Structure formats: structure tokens, C-alpha cells
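Hi L., both proteins are below.
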Amino acid sequence: MVFAAPGEALARAEELLGADPSPLHASVAHQVIGIWQRDFGDTRRALAHLRRARELAARADSAEREADVLATLGVALVHAGRTRDGLAAFERGVARGTGHTRARVLYRRAYVWWVLGRHGEALEDVRRAVPVLRQADDVIWTARALTLRATVHLALGAVERADADFTAAEALWDTTGQEHDKADAVESRGLAAFRSGDVPAALRLLDEAEERYAKLGTPTFMLSIRRCEVLMAAGLATEALAEADGAIAALDGIGGQSTRKAELLLVAARAARLAGDPQTSLARAALAVRLFAGQRRTWYETHARLVLIEARVATGRASGRLVADAAAVAERLAAFGAPAAPEASLLAGRIALGLGWTADAERHLAVAARSRHGGPPLARMTGWAAQALRARAAGSARGVLEACRRGLDVLDDHRMTLGASELRARATAQGAELAALAQRASLVSGGPRRLLVWSERWRATVLSAPPTRPPADPVLLSTMTAFRELAARAEEARTDGGRPAPALEREQRRLEREIRSRTLHMRGEGRGDGDGGRFDVGRLLDRLGDELRLVELAVLDGRVHVLLCGQGRVRRFEAGLLAEAEREAEHVQAGLRRLAHPGAEARLPLVEAAGARLQELLLGPAAAHLGNGPVVVVPPGRLHRVPWALLPVLRDRVLSVSPSASSWLRAKDTAPPPGGRRVLVRGPGLASGGAEVPELADRHAGPPPPARSGESPRRDTGARSGGAGPLDGRPVLLEGDEASVPRVLRELDGAALAHIAAHGAFRADSPLFSSLRMADGPLIVHDFERLDRSPYRIILSCCDTARLASVGADELLGLVTALLPLGTAGVVACSAPVNDAAVVPLMLALHKGLDAGLSLAEALRDARAALPGDAVHQATGWAFSAFGAA
């Protein structure tokens, strides 16, 4: 019962002990309490109860009872870090037990061997136990043994064998009422899905297991360890570190298992390293090494040493000693049959290369490169990274580019199994080294065109295909509705009382976690199409023609390289350091914030001077070669907040911004939907009242637009030859209660133009919860992803709507980038706080240009020029950018 209904089992055992039972029955009761404390409570209390259970079994003169207790005690001692004593208890248990009891003892010793990382011994004990358990028709223990054997197979990389055992165990569990074991089986299937490379399925199964454990009221430390592994593979290292540290604190709070603490420290160390926090990684890994060594867990100690070496390298401590240490770790991992062995060989080779030890590097990298032909995606990428480094050391630029291409193809296929745009974006971080190697090789040997191809190969790849549409999941839909209502109530409480409502905000965060969790479960709908690999420079140059210039900024080793495309050629110029440009951009943002308020006119010359410095850092000598025509800027993700219209050479131009040249081409080739339907939305609580919206509605008063059919417009990806042209007919006006999220989404779907005046809120901690405030609560990025086709053009007239989070290799998450893959060809949005009143004339002038048939970029240029010359209006114009090509 202790694994079917743990709380009830504990209560029954305590009740039995209060009834003066016989030694035999008292032994069982103490053993049950010991198991509960061992797995869900205080290890010290567990040991006390189990020792008492053994004494009572001896008094009852029951060898079988004593053998069973000794096995439970052995597990507890090992989890407490007393490995030698635990194995000695098992020796006595195997000697005392016979037949069926001995098989159960052997199964538990096999579990301990797995905990210790001694997989050969674990498989041997399971091999001896399973036939006896089956012969005794012991369904529960047979299923446990098969589950354990599957888990050991996974640790050794034998995924197919693991799947067979998990399937057999699951069939047995279905015939029992062992709820805790069933939850454990779901958790194990999640681990198997992860090992086979299916991250969404792994997240879904681990979340299901957590729900099952929650119903039983049992802690989930092993589940936390496994979820951290999946989160790290999904690019969510910061979240993995937070979960691991939280679990460590909870485990310490109850005096829990020392073995679990060591494992949590190991995943925390790995997460900290991936999150760019090498000092935390060093501290966690060093403590994990000490604990594993004391527990005699060589397998785990070796993995912890690998992370420790990685952290030392990340802090700049590369040395010959670390090469030797990494090589020794690689040898031990290979001897264990551990899948992490190639990572250690790659690390040894990378350190050796940095020291100029080419012969040693080649030896280690050749070993690591073997993994490129098989195994899960990340293992193959490790192999291709090693192969690329080998080619670079040999001076073969062609070899580097081929290895990088193959490795990034693996990543593309992996990314397309992920349905959630967030996971796709974050997964690109795993290809950053390959992309950087390819760019360096291109710079040395291939000229500007090849550098452009490789800059595009990994830039804004998440925009190359629409995300998987969220499923018609009633639970997800109801959760999003509940989140919206709660967020509206929390906002109302803040507005009325000026203070947050903690209970509402806690519930809001819980609902956010549930929404995010369910969206991360979505699987992708296809394999990578290699779109980035097929980028055609010639086609780009044809579309640019002689007048238009596209400026793509590539960053190599911290320096900005300007790739100037136009007039049938690509030229390269060196500009400034990225770090300096980022600092200057922050100064500009601070200046624009101040200029949003009257009385800060004295700041205007300072902001303009900062714009000139930004121009020098970002464009350098390329600024003199832009010609007189329109310009498209393609910045790296870390420069997404630059107000490009502030740069002197761009200030009076038709200017648009795009996350990549590829996405600009797609936007250029996107045809506007038929009908020219326009939607005007005015949300609540705006300082200006969204004053431009009713004026725009009045400007186009006329016959109503045609009634909408129940069917959403189909996406049309045909090419167009020119702009969208003037828009005719009365727009759909949504304000007051009509500006609700469901109604707004219904009208936005397939519209030709949408203008939304609503409070924007950017969430740096969770970009896909960035929102626009509607009458019934926030309209979030997840809502937009439900559209069949987002508006062809969309104007977001309020603050911070163009703010984005830079994640992965060079990806951006936020409102604008959510719209671009869904059919939107052009967006006007704002990257800084602005003066609400000054926005109104800018928006009216912008629409005047659109009515005349101009593009968004053309209309925005003219609208800026039409504004009054004071500092507030100038800053407002600079803060808005046109994205895309419509």
C-alpha cells in the first residue's frame, strides 16, 4: 500500500503500532514507516524505523521477513550516502532470503546498483530476479523490475530495449492499483521520450507524472532531476537551474536523501553552465563531486567532474592539466558506456586547440566526431562540432563549412519536431558554435556573399515557418480565459488601490505556468526544410534592384561586420564593437524615455549625438555607400531595440527593419488578402483615449464592409508586384466592451490592415505573455498564434510593442516576431515609451500615406516629416519602426 496510497499506508502503520501488535506485524509497520520516510521524508527517521523493523523480524524468528527488511534498509543506507553499509545489508539480505523473497531483494539491490551508476551489476541482478518473480505471478514486483531494467538501458543509450521493457511493464501496471508505481512508469516514459529526442512528449509525460504524484501527496525529487534534463535540452537552462535549486532547498528542509541531493546538484551545475553562470556551476559541481565520491558513485562522480571541467574552462582557466582531466573523464565515461563520453572528448579537444596542441586536439576530436553518425540529435551535433573543429585545425575551410552545414541540418530537423515557437527559438542556441565557426571560415575564404549566406543560415530561423497552431484543447482554452479574467481583475486592483493583489497575482502566475506548459507540449508538424541552407543571394539582389539597399549586420568575435547588399553585389565593411553599440543603444533608450515627457528638450541634442555615435559603431564606413534610396536594416538580435531612424544617415529615408533577409523576402512575396478589410481597435485606459481611432473611423465613413463568412481566409503565398494599394470601405471599429479578445481575434484574422491602440506590456521573463490590454483582459502572443492568418499589415500605436527578447543563437521572441510567420508582411511598432498625445498626429499622418497607396515604411517616413519640430514629437517619431516589407 505504501506505493499505491502512501498517506493511507503511513496512517495504517501508525495505527497498528498503537494496538500492541506481535513482533512480526510490528516489523511490517515499522518497515512501512521507514519506506515512507526514506522516499518522502526524513532519511534519519527512516533508518531508525528500519533498524527497529529488522530487530523485530529477528525476534519473530522470520528469516524471510528479516531479508526483506534488510533490502529496504540497504536502499535507505545508500540514499543516505552510506554506500558500504548499504551493500553489506544487501549481502546479508540475499543470504537470509530464499526463492521469491530473494528475488525481491535482488531487484532492490539492482536498483541500488543503478543509483550507484554500476549498470552491469544492475542488469545482472534484474536478470536473476525477473524469472522468479514471473514464476511466482508477482505482477507488481515484475513490473517494477522491468521498469528498472528499462531505466538502466536508457542510461546506457539502449533506447529500443528500454522501450520494450517500458511497454511490458505498463501492460502489467494497468492490471494493478499501484498509483505511485504507475506515476513512476509515466515519468520513466517521459525519460524515454527525451532520450529518443522527443522533447514535447517528454515534457507532456513528466507533467502528467507530476499531476499523478500531486494526487498522492508525495515529493517529486527524481522527477525534478529528469525535468531539468529536458528543460536544458529545450534551451530553458535558467528555468532548470531554478527548479533544481528549489528542489535542493526542499530536500534539505525535510532531511531527505543525500543521493538525490547530489544528483540535483549535478543538474544545477549543468544548468548554471548553460545559463552562462560559470561561478555557480563551479560551486554546484564541486559539491556534487564530493558527495558522489563519498557515496562511492563513480558513474555520477565522473559526470560531475565533466561539468566541473566545463565550468573551469568557462571561467577562463584552460590549461594543459584540464586537457588531461577531460581526457581521463572521457575514457572513464566511454568505459561505462555513458552517452556523454563524446562531450568529454570534444571538451578535451577544444581545450587542446586553444592551447595550440594540434596533435592532442586531433586525437580527442576524432573520438568525439564518431558520434555524428548516430544517436539522438544533440549527440550528432556534438560529433559534427568536433568534425568542424578538426577541419579548422587542418586549415580546411571547405571541411568546416560542410561539417557546420551537416550539424545545423540535424538541428533544423530537431527544431521542427518542436511545435512551440519558444522552444524552436531557444533550441537554436545549441547550434551557435557551428554557426560561428562557419561564419569565421566564410570571412577568411569565401568573401561577402558566403558570409551573407551563413549569416542567414542561423538568423531568425524560427520565423522560417509558422509555429504549430495550439490544439483545440478545451482545458487550454478555458485556462486562457481564466487567465485573462484574473489578469483583468489584478489590473483593476492595481488601478483602484495602487497596490498589487498578491493572491490574484499568485493565481495568475499559476495559470501562466499551465498555459505555457500545455503549449510546450505541442509537437512540430514536419521536418526541417533547410530553408536557411537554400538562401539565394542572387534572388535577394534581384528583388533589391538598383535603388534599394539591404544592410545585414553580422557579429564575429564581438565586432560588427556590415554586409551591404544592392546594385547586384554584396560588400563588406567593418564597424565597431557590439558591446559598445549595445551600451550606446541603452543610452539612447534612456534619452527617448525622458523626451517622452515635456520639459526635457535639453536632452534632444544629447540623444542626436548618441545617434551619430551609434551610426559609427553600427555602420562605420558603410554609411557613405547607402545611396539615396530606401534601406532595409537586418540587425542581430541583441540590437533589436536600436531606434534606427535616429541614425543621421537613415533619418530622412524610407526605412524598414527585418529579422533576416530571408524573412524580408517572404514578406515581399506575401500577397495582401482580398477585400481590403480594415480593423480599428481601441483598448481601455489610454492616456490619449486612443484619440486617433475614432478620427480614422470617421475619415473612412462609408458603406459597411462585406459581412464576414464563417470560414477563415486561406493563406495566399503568391507573389505581388507592388504595394497593397489604397484601402476602401468603412473599417470595423472595436472599442468599449466590443474590444474583447475573442471579438478582436475574430476580426483580425485575415484582415488587410489592423490598427490597435492599446496598452502594451512587454514581459522579458516570459516574452510570449507580452500583451495588449483589451476590455476583458490581456491579448497575449499565444492568442495571436491561434490565428489562421494574422493581418497583412498591423499598426501597434502604443509603447513597447516592438520590444523583443533575444534568445537562442540569434532569435527574437515577442509580439512583432509572432506576427511575421503568420501572414503579416508589415508591422509598425514602438520600441520605447512615448508621449501618448504625440502619437496621435503621427498615426493620423501614417494612415494618410497608406490611404495614398504608400508602403508602411514610406508612410512612416512621411509621417515623421509632418510632425512638429519639438523634442517630444521628434522622439515619438524615432521610437517607431516599420518591420517587414508591406
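That was the first. Here is the second:
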Amino acid sequence: MSKNLVIVESPAKAKTIQKYLGKDFEVKSSFGHIRDLPKKGMGIDLATFSPDYEVSADKKKLVTELKAAVKKADMVWLASDEDREGEAIAWHLADELKLKPENRKRIVFHEITKNAILKAIDNPRDIDQNLVNAQQARRVLDRIVGFEMSPVLWKKVKPGLSAGRVQSVAVRLIVEREKEIREFIPKASFKLDGVFLNNTGQEIAAKLKKDFEKEKEAEHFLEQAKTTEFKVLNVETKPGTRSASAPFTTSTLQQEASSRLGYNVTSTMRLAQRLYEEGYITYMRTDSVNLSQEAIEGAKKQIISEYGAEYSSPRNYTTKSASAQEAHEAIRPTDFAVKSIGDAQLNKLYQLIYRRTLASQMANAKIEKTVIEIGNTSLPYHFEAQGEVIIFDGFLKAYGIVKAEDDDEENNEKLLPKVKVGEVLDYKSITATEKFTKPSARYTEAGLVRKLEELGIGRPSTYAPTIQTIQNREYVDKREIEPQTREVIKMSLVKDKIKKVIVNEKFGGDKNKFVPTDIGEVVNDFLTDNFKEILDYGFTARVEESFDEIASGDQKWKEMMTNFYSKFHPRIEDVEENADRATGDRLLGVDPKTGKNVHARIGRFGAMIQIGETDDEEKPIFASLMAGQNIATITFEEAMELFKLPFDLNEFEGQPVSVGVGRFGPYVKWGETFISIPKGEDPLSVDQNRAEEIINEKKKADAPIATYKGEPVTKGTGRFGPFIKYKDIFVNVPKKYNFDNLSQSDINELIDAKLEKEANRYIQQWEKEKISLENGRWGPFIKFGKAMFKIPKKKDDTKYEAEELKQISLEEVKKWITDQDKNAFAEKKKPAAKKTAATKKTTAAKKTAVKKK
């Protein structure tokens, strides 16, 4: 048996390391953290800020296995990642597995290569408690903020909401940008573009160096240009250089993978994790741009062999951020001789990292910039043409150029023809186009990461989970914003004639950018009104600095927590007691039919329009907003249109037809079938003919594609992908099948496999009681309604086999359920009778009187 036990976090990492260490070492995985704060309850003693860690249920078996492996080993090597999270994993392992200092060693490496692993084994250290405490401080502070702020949101806004130190600040950035866009007033000006011809007929595109505010001014300039002889007034050629960017940090990798590969932050980090664990790149959570001397030499060798000595320019970069965590390297390939890897998806990201690292060690690109001034001394303003020629491509040979997110599309620099000063040019056309200023762009995932990093909020490991959380909570989404249309004036001077036209221009549309939801805006406004300090960008950045100080041993984490909580908790109590409820309520106007107020607000089920007041004797009426509508921007007219839904149409094939809008958007209802109206189509425009078209399209899509044992089989695409349906059974269709052209044998094979799986699913079933004993992925379990319960062990502490469970009585199973949930079979209380409107008014009056006193 191996005398050395190595514990890492992931099985992929374990597999890679095992092949380097040989028979004397056994490598096992902890599958991340083996223990954490409990899922239910805060799990923190607020008097001492001591966390009450526990081994989660799904890790108990693993911990037992690790304890058994520890008993057989002479030395345990804790080899989790070299950041704070990794240090905390090592500490939890040492504590839970009861490892003595003399029988444990902590090793770290930032790349999974044979040299790095063996070097780490030769240079062990002990667990760095300062790094552990920095991770504990973050975990405990964020748990307290979430657990104390979230119930305030449930009480003051809507049940089921959550708040968090970093996530709430990220939502604030997106909400503030959206408000800025709404309040933006575009200003118009006229920009002039000219196309000129030299004596050989070559075109030179140029821009006037002056914009005109008024149409008349632009038109006057065109009148002047009619009779002007255009000349080359000046030609200026300047040498220039372009230098490569530094190697990747976590943040810059996320941004570049977004702009070049279209990957979201979560996908980038998942692929980077695999590249690291399989030994292709160095550690992927870093804010350092530093490269080791070994890496610089490796890149130099590769550049000289592939491109030539003139392309090599070795250099090191320094990290600008004062708060950069630990002495990591930048993200780079572990071996520059490996130019590509087999997995296509992994290879795309690997290529990006490989080429960026090579480029950072390559010579600057040399360019020649040419500026031609065109005009006449009689004109008040002149045109300018800019062009660029690459004299030596340098690092561009490996990395190329990519446009930044906010680059102006019109600034395309190009190659210009040779001209001389004084040369006469003919104008082919001069165009004055009305252009409007644009608001700041909405955030992409990459843009949000860049902003968080710029503000010092969060750290490399937090960007991806933060962005995922705010989408999961439905505070923000990436819905498509339909563009609006406006008229713009365009004047063209061609062959001494000025032609004026009015054209339509689309603006304000957006795709794949963050937009706040109604609930996101209401929650953000409530938090910024009541918890200004927690939502303050500077405060959040200062908390990160405190974590850095704890990591370096310059601050004690419990002292930091005491200082924070002494100010935070009283604020929670004050807001819970005194803050008003937040619904985002906007009074839109008065309903002409009833004379009642029309409100846009957040209700129990989301954004809605309400006619009437909640304390009126006659109940208010409600309408749901449609996709793309927002309580902050919906107009009175748009709101009143919603009350026309649902409406009935004529019967079709003997079944009633209606049009409405629900939580999944607008629909046509035919009998008991709900059919979604295509995206972007106004439900109010759906008449009888269109409704029948939609129904027929659905019938066609739902028509049987085959039969199985005489029963029809249909197909469709749901939230989990393509499926076929037989009776009431849905069968997922894997990618290996051609979904568009399924054969009868494919269908038989898929349904047979599903029925066999279903047949093996139930060990025993009591349908009337909604109780069953079922085979699951991790072994047999009890299902009662929608809840799942464990099967206890037998008296001899062994598990029940499936055959034994077939003999278990219903009464015994009920007892097992009751042991885990005492109220499982308790009768549910009937809801209390609702207060009448008169009672509500009396109660409200009493409350008012108390407040006045």
C-alpha cells in the first residue's frame, strides 16, 4: 500500500498528478470543499463570529473513505490550489481528517507538470492560516450580509428574494446604466464625408474636421463646395508602433474570450479549469501578469523557431493592481512546444492563451500613419483622410488585431493612394448625414467584469459566480431590446447638384447585453435607499482590501467582523422596523371608465398593471406585462391595451379559441391547449385567421411521426432539448440520433430503453398514498409526493438491498418518512378567512392613529 496519500480537489487533477508521482503515492480527490457552513440556518455564532462548519450529506461517504486512506498512509500531502479557497480546503481536510502536523505537508504549484509537482514535493510548507482566515472572513461576512438582508427584502418587497455584498453591487451597476440610457437625450449634428478622386481615378475617403449643429450650416457648406477646386493641402507621414498586451489574467481572459470567441464568463472558466487540470495551462485564477523566467525562455525559443529572431523581444510585465492576490503567474501554456490539443472546444481557448502569451514576448509592430489634408483656402474647414500601413507585423503575426467593444465602426483606417501637395482632386460625392449622439452602452459580461475589476470589487474567483447568481435570481437578463425608428436627413452633393432625402434609421436595439428586470430595479432602489454603505462601490472595494490585509497577516479577521457587524446589524433592525414597502409603484393615470387610478407595480407574481386600490371595497383588477415591457417605462396607453387581453374569438373545429398573455408570454388558447404566439408578434393583432394559422402550425408540429405498438408517437423541443412523446412518456433524444429524420428503429430503440428504465425505477409503489420506493442514481430512496427521503440502514448498520425493499410494508415506509419529517402526514390547516375591506380600513385607521401619537 502507498505510504504517501495526496489529496487534491478534483478527480481530473488527481488523474493527471497520479501519472507523474508513481506507485509510492496514492492520489485522491476531495471534490472541492468537504465541509462548509450549513445550508439551513446561518451557522455562525454572532457573539464570536465562529463558524459552525459541517460535512454535507453528499460528502459523508467520501470523508469516510478519505479517513480510511489516511489510516494507511505515513504522510498526507494536501495539494489543493494555491489561492485562499484552496488553502481553506486544505485546512478543512486537515481538521476533519484529524491530521497531525508531523503527518501532513502542504504543497502548492501553479501548473500541473511533472517538474512543478516534483518541485512542490521537494519544497513543502504548512497551512498558511492567514490565507485561511481571509477566506473565512469573506465566507462569514457574505453569509451574514445575505442572511440578514434577504429577510428584509422578503418583508418589504417580495418573498423569496436574496441580497449579497457583491451581487447587489453588480446589479446596481446594471440598473444605473439602464437609468442613464433612459434619461439620455440624443443631440443631432451633421457629419460630412467626402470621396475624392486623384488624377489616376483612385478614391480617397475623407471626413470634414468640423461637425455642424444645424441643417442650414451643413447645406451652406455643400453650396460652397459646389464651386470649389479641391487640392491636397498637406501630406504628413508619421512612423508609429503598436505593442502587445500583457499575458492573461482571469479578468482579461474572460473579456477576450467573450469578444473573440463569444464565450460567456462561466463557459470560459469551465474550459480554463479543464485546461489547467489536464496540465495544459497554469492556474486560471490570477490577477498577476508576471511570467517565470522558464516561461520567458520557452516562449523565446518557440518564437525564434516559428517566426525568426527579429520577432523575439523577451520582457516581463508588472501587475498594476496593488491588491493582486498571492504571487501567481499569469495564465500561460505549460509547454510552448504544444501548439494545439485534440479537443476542439478546449483548443479554441488554448489557442487564445497560447497566442496571447507568445505575442506578449514578441517585438512591437511598426506602422506608418499617413494623414492627407484636402480642401481650399476659400473653405472655412478642411477634409482629412487617414491611412495606415504595417511596415513590420511583429506580435500581430501571432495575435492579430481585434476591435474593442466601444470602438467607432467608422474609424476604419485604410491604405491611401500616393498624392502630392498641391495636386488637384475632383470630388465624387460629399454627403452630410444627420447623426445622433449615443448613450453609454449596456454591459456585456466582459464589460461588467472589466468594470468590477476597475472598481476593485470582487476577485478573480468571484466574477463568474457573481454574474451567474444575478441571472439565476432574475434580477437581470439578456432579453433582446427591439430597436426604435427615427427619421434622419441626408444631403448629398453629386455632380454640382445637392439632393436632400429623409431616411429611416433604427436605434436603441440591443442583443446579449445585461438589462435589469422589474424586480431587479425595485430591489436595487430599495437597497440603495436603505443600505447606502453596503451598496457603495468604495465600501465594497475597501472590504476586499481588508481581506487582502488579513491574507498578509496585517489584520485579524474577527476584529474586522466585529467592526463591520457593530454598524451593519443596527441598520438592519432600523430598516426592518421603519422602511416602507417597495413595489416600484408608478401612478400612470386614471381609467376613464371607472375613474380609478391605474398603477404599474410589482405584485406577488411579478410586474403588473392594477386598476383600483387594494383597500377599495371593490377588488382591483390586474393585467400582466408583456415581454419587453417594464413598469418604469410603460405608458398609460400601453397599460390600458393590456386589459383587452384575454379576448375570445370564434370556435375552431368545435373548440373555443381565445388570445391572452401569461407568465411565459402571449398565447392562443385552443380548447385546453396553450400555443405560444411567435416572438415579437403583438397578441392584440391576432385575429381569427391568424389564430387558426397558429393552431394549424401547432397541429402540424404535433402530428404523429410514427407509431409504437399501435399508439401514436409525436416529437418536439422543450427546455431540455429535443424529445419524442409516447402516451404520457417523454423520451429525450440524444445528439447521436438525427432528430429531423428519425427512423422507426430509432424510435423503437429510444422508447424501449425508456420503458426498461421506468420498469426498473419502482421497487414498490402505493399510488393512492403518493408514496413509492424507487431506484435512484445514488441508490434506492423514498418518494412522497414531490419530496424525497432517505432509506435508513438496517439494525446491523448495513444498507437495504432492492430485493429486501420489495418486502417492506407501507406502514414501515410511513414510519421512515415521519422519522425525517414529523409533520409529513399532518393535516394542513385551512387558510384563515380574508379580512373584509371594512376591517382593513379600520385596521389601517388604527395604525395611523398610533403613528401620530
